[in-house]
């Protein structure tokens, strides 16, 4: 277990997929948030690794507010879990001016490794709720882990802030009133993907794994693209474990689309074979979501690609993101924040903003009433918890991959921001 005990008072130091990228979160438990190598060289959440010595302050006689953070700190999604935890601590520091307290109540957070295993996630969440008596849950890196834990939020009547898991069902069929999601969902990704390339008269082919994750992604993409005037000329689905996509790619080439939109996750990505079969030489533009930096390093052949991004550190232009980038570099050896760092920060900001509005009161009913419809500022700009399903509406980015000096990967360059209204997903919880 990793713990971060509050350093109370002024002595606290300020801490510091595709669609390829949706898998962190896709419906499968081990889906990664991007294809490609997930062994990013990010620092472990070092300041969370050991308890700090508390410093006496005026809040010492008040019960602390406790947050339990579930994250994959080992296994296939290790890098994503670490990014989220680093971001969460940064967010607490930012939102509390480094004090980690609200209305005189200290905020403590306890991090548990789910190992990207649903049974372990349940075990760790139960421990946080029963033994540590946390007031909030946050997490997790895997949608399968998150879906397994949602019933515990209902059973123990505690708010769970979901970050970064993306499965639609989290704020859809499996939702309960205690669930608030700061991360985007699969449908938001799909809507952003369509908004980036679809227009009147454009012909689009789609390619995805034959799984709930892949089919859900295309099911969300297709109506948005068609509404914008595009035509879907073929939908190709491959066995999620396949390594040879020849038949699918031949059918895509035969359909003669203007764009190929790819939803993918996992190490067996189709990128190399798409290049080997010279899809782009046929006049077909490939489009997908820009993943994390390690995965971008596998996409040098896709320079010029039009697509979308959930986050790249140069895309949002606001003071909070500027603070995040500068502070992250200070704390983590000059490294910039990657795909899931701002999400962890956003989860912390949302919790602190809600607590500020309740005066530090952690009564669950009061928190729910406060958070429904709440707007709050984040590294990606303003977000809003939609009252109907508690999904955070948020900005995404239409981008183009460009080669830039000094980078060994294609850099996502902003084409335009996709507003929270533009990327709003359908309400799917039937409540």
From TrEMBL:
Keywords: Signal. Residues 64-403 form the Leucine-binding protein domain. It holds the Pfam family Peripla_BP_6. Residues 32-58 have a biased composition (Low complexity). Residues 1-23 form the signal peptide. Gene3D superfamilies: 3.40.50.2300. Residues 32-60 are annotated as: Disordered. Belongs to the leucine-binding protein family. This is ABC transporter permease. It comes from Cohnella kolymensis. The lineage of its organism: Bacteria, Bacillati, Bacillota, Bacilli, Bacillales.
